[in-house]
Amino acid sequence: MSEIALVTQLKDKFGDGIVTVQLDAIDAWVEVTAPALLGVCEFLRDVEDYHFDMCNCITAIDYLHTDPKKAEKVDWAPHMELVYHLSSVATKLTLVIKVKIPRWKDEATQQLPEIPSVASVWTTAIWHEREVYDLSGVNFIGHPELKRILCPDDWEGHPLRKDYEMPLEYHGMRGR
Amino acid sequence: MELMAVSWAYWHQFFFIIFAGSAIGFGCGVLISQNIVRMAFYLVLSLGSTAGLFFLAGAEFVGAMQLMIYVGGTMVLLIFGVMLTAQKDFVNMKTHTHDWILATVVGGSLLMVLLFVAFGSEDWRSPQDPTDAHIVDTKAATPLGLALTGVRVDKLDDLNDPLNQGKSGYLMPFIIISVHLLVVLIGAAYMARTKKLSHATGLRSSRARLSVFKMEEEDEVLEEETYVVLRKDKQATNPLDTNDDNADNLDEA
Amino acid sequence: MSATNIDDPRIVEFDVRTDEMLINMGPQHPSTHGVLRLALRTDGEIVADLEPHIGYLHRCAEKIGENLTARQFVPYTDRMDYLAAMNMNLGWSLTIEKLLDHDVPEKGRHLRVLIGEMNRVASHLVAMGTYGLDLGAFSPFLYAFREREKILDLFEKACGARLTYSYIAPGGATADLPGGWTAECSEFINQFKKIIPEFHTLLTTNAIFIARTAGIGVLSPRMAIDYGCTGPVLRGSGVYHDLRFHGEERYTELYDGYEFDVICMDSETGKYPDSHQGVYKDGLSYPEVPSDAILGDCWHRFYVRMLEVVQSVRLIEQSIAKYDACSGSHGEPIKLTQKLPLGEAYLETEAPRGQMGFYVVSDGQSNPWRVRARSSCFSNLYVTAPLCRGVLLADVPAVVGSLDVVMGEIDR
Amino acid sequence: MAEFFNEYIFGNGPWSWLGYVVAALIACILVIHVVAVGAMGFIWLERKVAGRIQDRLGPTRVGGKFGWLQTLADGIKLIAKEDFTPDVADRFLFKIAPYVAFAASFSAFIALPFADGVVANHVNTAVFFVLAVLGLEVFGVILAGYGSGSKWSLFGAMREAAQVVSYEVPLGMCVVVPVFLCGTMNLTTIGNMQEGFITNWLVFNDPFTFVIAMVYFTCATASVNRAPFDLAEAESELVAGFHTEYSGLRWSLFFMAEYGSMFLVSGLAVILFFGGSNGPIPVGDWLANLLGGVKEGSIGANLPSLGAITVGVIGVANFILKGVIGVIVMIWIRWTFPRLRIDQVMSMCLKYCVPIAAFGFIGAVGWEVLDLPTPNNLDEKSRYEYHEKWSHEYLETQQQTKPAANDRHARQAVPTEAIITTVAVSQNAVEVNGGKQ
């Protein structure tokens, strides 16, 4: 399986940067640590026989159970997961990169979690990351213009978080 | 079918008063008005009414000429220029009192000289009996055409006069002037070409860097360059932000 | 202007001081397709800079997806790209089937190809008509919509709706095609084949249309891939990539046994594949590429869509024959409250406007844990910024029109 | 007409000037109506022809099967619509702009002869007058663009100004060819000189004039802002160009001005190139003499004879028929072609229209100077015989009134006979060949 060759290449290049590899899932994915993300992405784009030159989609998944009963039944602690779907036009291959980051940089002051931005690797990531910032609240370091893209500029809160409540009113319009 | 009989005695007088009045009135309007674009519009109306005066005097060709050249040509460019510049703080031009005094002195003296000459010359006095002042339906354009090509219309009777041998036409000066005008136009166009390409690199508008002519032969290399420019832009803050304070750091972009 | 300082020698000679104008084209503007606002900085007629603002049609369908079961979410996928709702349903159904590992019977497969390609023809007709409107030609719009009405009538017979069908559901389709439907459909196809050359004479080979589109908004292949453009926009720049050939195994098996071409100009011969086999007027070849059209400009993107209509017509003919041949169930849709297995699935399909991807993460409940829709026009739209820099104001609608964006899909 | 009023209503006493005022008013109303009703007709025509081109019916419900009252309904709706002025606008200019455009477009009809004698006012240099007034229409658009205060309308106004001013150059060059072929700028004369068989039309005079006719029609479409050149109100780019902020009656004035000048320009084309009022329905001297010639002026001193009236009516019918065909061609072009970009319009004017017009002009002049064969019998016609042949005024010019003895200004004015004779005499001095002035 060519993916195994790729994963071994990744492992010996980035060592502990690669956390876990899941090749038998419906879509094979590789989990990477946040600091190593930028390096892995540039490597994946430039390596000849894979050449992942198109970043299809960047998604943020919020793992948090609001009501405590369900929280115990689940084995993972509340965290945020960023999923990068990559594909290659040249070699028609696809790959999924995952990164686990804490839900808040620090809970008290509602500071958003940080992750290096891949905008310098794929230009399309500029808008995808702006959408993730807007809807899920993840701060991308090194992003050229991190602003809200879908919600109005003065909107508070990030809708796609599990613990998000619709504001009571917005500019005089009743929210709830 | 002649729709409107022109035999009423005072008709000619009636229209003359209207046209002359509007010419002078809108002329003063140009002086008095504050708003630049209104000034330009009053000038158009005043020149239009002088065209009316020409028609009244039976000189249809010159009247149409005035309409086409002054009102249709020059005034369009003048309003064009005024429209482009009359933004924000250039619309209202206040004339201060000392300008008024200076203007009335200089203007007034010239006016006096003009009036003296106008009433002095014998041929220009209006006809004694107003009833026989009517539009003489001469074929106005033919004499002009003949004069242009060298037939002296006023000395038609003596044939052997050298001027009548077709060498006295106004064609030559006409052509010289038109060539002269052409040179002047080309010079003006050259001077006003878009200067911002050559050296004003620091300003925001220069980042467009593509004038209409250059865009025609846009080639692959240029496209690469825009691609590179984009990459470099990413460090500069978004150029479209309306607040001006970040305009300073644009200079390095 | 605070940016200039007087003592700088270069500024002194600077006399022709033109101020730039900041104009908003949109959100309510006749030529932006839907509610899109383009903030233009223009210098006279030349566009110095352009920034698209979106989000006016944002209804956070992804959050709603977390509170609905798989089948309940189907109507929401219709309203993403409302001009090609069938393809959206198809994408969502395939993703859910990939997660459930559920296979659709043979008849259902051919039904999906037939309906998907019919909707592609309808969507490209809208793209062609509105692009004519953007450039000022009013008549092509009416000819395109006259044909589209016939397709909508057929869809109405099949599933009762004309725009947002919710017809293809995970597991198959909500209902089988009524009797005689395929006969009517082939009759429509036969008369449609004779009309395709008409569209070409109306726009593609029209001298003013070529003058307005050839060489405008040139998108190089490298830039197209880097900006994540997909579908006709990518193939218009000469990149040989069509998910119906190069997609995921579960999606390409849908088109097993069908032969059709990927419409993309191979740069050596500079010609498009013209395997029309009688679809185009008897033996007549397509209008060839005009001299001043550069690969990747608006004209090519428009031309790719027009040729894709011909390929879809071929596909429809084959799928009608195959659909009539097989019998049995067309694939009953899954239970309304079907429990989704733990895990996640991501699948991209070739929608008329580009690659439409759906990503479902489930934690074993019937409601998915996270639903994500990757919109093709979202990335295609971002290309307008570099393409429109230095272009005349009248070309901005030409470039945006050639990208054929639908705001419902971008804002979700 | 004024004497009529004075005799029967106002009497020749102090109130006699009232008769003239009323006569003047009637004349103005007649001209405006001839053109306003025409413009309304053309709006209806445009919607029907556009419908046919787009494979649909066009208006059918209002006023009978063919929906011919549709424009009236639109007019009433527009009058009823609220006519507000945007607060940022320059109120005075905003209000006056439509009237300037309307006046400019309609005042050109004064000099446009519908048939031989049927013209509002005999302007000897009619062609030049019509072109000059046509150029004024751009003011209405510029003031509207600037007056509305919005950036979009400013764009529209600037594009319009640039386009119309630059298209006047080739338009002027194309108009000069028929003028020098007929030797006069008097539209009625040009129309009359093309009488007789269809080959007498100027457009068939020589291949260069044929090309000039086509270039004229293109530049005319551009100078009235129609079809592929309608940059000023480009819906898809500038929302609606200069008349974005207008609504109701003011907007309909712009609309009326556009259709009025559309008919004006195609009417000019008809007179200059396509035989004025000597169109498909045969008309000529033989018809007038058949019904009692004009020479002896049989009925009433100053009323034209029955012959003159029938010739006039048929002439008007011919002229309007061909004018409408010209308008239909413009509508047809509008609904098939997309719009050109502003720099393409400009380059089209400077790189194509002006050179072709110049080339055609030189060709036509060469054709005349070398006296190459032309299908029409223009050579034997002297332009003086063809002045306003059938009109009452024609009788007057036959006995050119001597200027009053004591009129000092008249001294320079040379009586017409003198000009004709001297021109003949001076010809051999100046060796202008062909003896054709």
What does the secondary structure layout of this molecule look like, with pairings?
The complex is a heterotetramer of chains A (176), B (253), C (412) and D (437).
Chain B: H1 11-32, H2 36-56, H3 60-85, H4 97-120, H5 141-149, H6 171-191, H7 212-216, H8 220-233
Helix pairs in contact in B: 1-2, 2-3
Chain C: H1 9-12, E1 21-25, E2 37-43, E3 46-53, H2 61-65, H3 74-78, H4 85-100, H5 106-134, H6 139-159, E4 168-169, E5 172-173, H7 181-204, H8 207-213, H9 221-226, H10 232-236, H11 243-246, H12 249-252, H13 298-325, E6 343-351, E7 354-362, E8 370-374, H14 376-382, H15 384-387, H16 395-403, H17 407-411
Antiparallel strand pairs in C: 1-2, 2-3, 4-5, 6-7, 7-8
Helix pairs in contact in C: 4-5, 5-6, 5-13, 5-16, 6-7, 7-13, 13-16
Chain D: H1 2-10, H2 16-53, H3 70-80, H4 91-107, H5 126-147, H6 151-182, H7 187-193, H8 207-223, H9 235-238, H10 248-273, H11 285-290, H12 306-334, H13 342-369, H14 392-398, H15 416-430
Overall description:
The complex is a heterotetramer of chains A (176), B (253), C (412) and D (437). Chain A has a five-stranded mixed sheet with strand order 1-2-5-4-3. In chain A, strands 6-7 form a two-stranded parallel ribbon. The termini of chain A are far apart. Chain A is built from four helices and nine strands, in the order αββαβαβββαβββ. Chain A has one domain: NADH:ubiquinone oxidoreductase Nqo5 subunit (Beta Polymerase, domain 2, 2-Layer Sandwich), CATH 3.30.460. Helices cover 23% and strands 26% of the residues of chain A. The longest helix of chain A is centred in the first third of the chain and has 13 residues, at 2-14. With 412 residues, chain C is α+β, with helices and mostly antiparallel strands. In chain C, the strands form three sheets. In chain C, strands 1-2-3 form a three-stranded antiparallel sheet. The longest helix of chain D has 38 residues, at 16-53. The radius of gyration of chain D is 24 Å and the shape is globular. The chains are: A alpha/beta (176), B mainly alpha (253), C alpha+beta (412), D mainly alpha (437). Chains in contact: A-B, A-C, B-C, B-D, C-D. At the B-D interface, α2, α3 and α5 of B face α2, α4, α5, α6 and α15 of D.
